[in-house]
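Hey, does this match?
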Amino acid sequence: MRIGIVAGEASGDLLASGLIEAIKVEHPEVEFEGIAGPAMIAAGCRALYPAEKLAVMGLVEVLAHYRELKGIQNNLVQHFLDNPPDVFIGVDAPDFNLTVERKLKQQGIKSVHYVSPSVWAWRQYRVKKIARSMDLMLTLFPFEAAFYQQHQVAVEFVGHPLAEMIPLEADMNGAREQLNLPADRKLVAILPGSRMSEAKMLTQLMLEAALGVTRQQPNTEFVIPLATPAIRAHVEQVLQDLPQRPVVHLVDGCSREVMAAVDVIMLASGTAALEAMLFKRPMVVTYKLSALTYAIVKRLIKTPFVSLPNILAGQEVAKELIQDQATAANLAAEVLRLLQDDSASAAMSERFKEIHLQLKQNASQKAARAVLGLIADVNH
């Protein structure tokens, strides 16, 4: 059995390696080849190209690399047409993978797409193109599967691998000890985003909110996990320019350990909100864009909420303070409410636990079974 597989960035590499290992349990002789990251290669995938070739963020960067990416895409399609695999799996990277999937499917090669593009949230018309491009969609979230079912697209909800990796009960005291954080203080994590553009938009706002919290509750301290050295430099600069400073602990990386260690989390909307939810930590979500970008995005977005915990819950469990609502005073008020109202915090954590259990499905095994089922259908 031969399987073609392509993943771009680190998250895709992790998902793909889990899938490779799960398929190998059932079929130890299977061969994998494609565009692979370090985890996939370690799991036994032959890399025709390294995954970092696809990890290009942003429009300008993509344009700069367009010819190279197009060349890789064409070579890959030709390679699989010359040596047809039993199935092709595109993991995330929809702009690249859906084109490969469509071209292979047109020539009778079965294709699977693992991780739905956020078509349910905006540009819903893309669902027709997605349906033409692949034979099976594997989704991480149940509401995505429901969306594809409404559009008569073959789909399987497999759950989220992060729900396996993050324990149902995170050890707060152990995490504090590991990070040398005080055991006897209320701790609030500040996550201004993993991209520099987000950090520039939100760091000052969040630190001003932290000051507001400290004025009301002086024994509160703050922890900021820093995604990159550049973001660290930016945060240090903002701290230096503040007239007063809250007590802030800066930690390089370790965002999950920080989430486990704190009482409340203040964060930029994004993947971090999903992780914070899996750690069952009460949170407040914020985001700001330039006025023009926000006006465009607001018209395109089809969901009532921006953060995954609320989309998954189907209601606003975590407060969302977006754009004009994103003020230091509003953020401080919500953090204080969560620090002081134990029953509100406990209710939020309980709801998060229910969602965690829903997402904990043994994703890699479930995805492997779906892929092998598709291969079996072809061979009959």
About this structure: The chain has a mean pLDDT of 91.
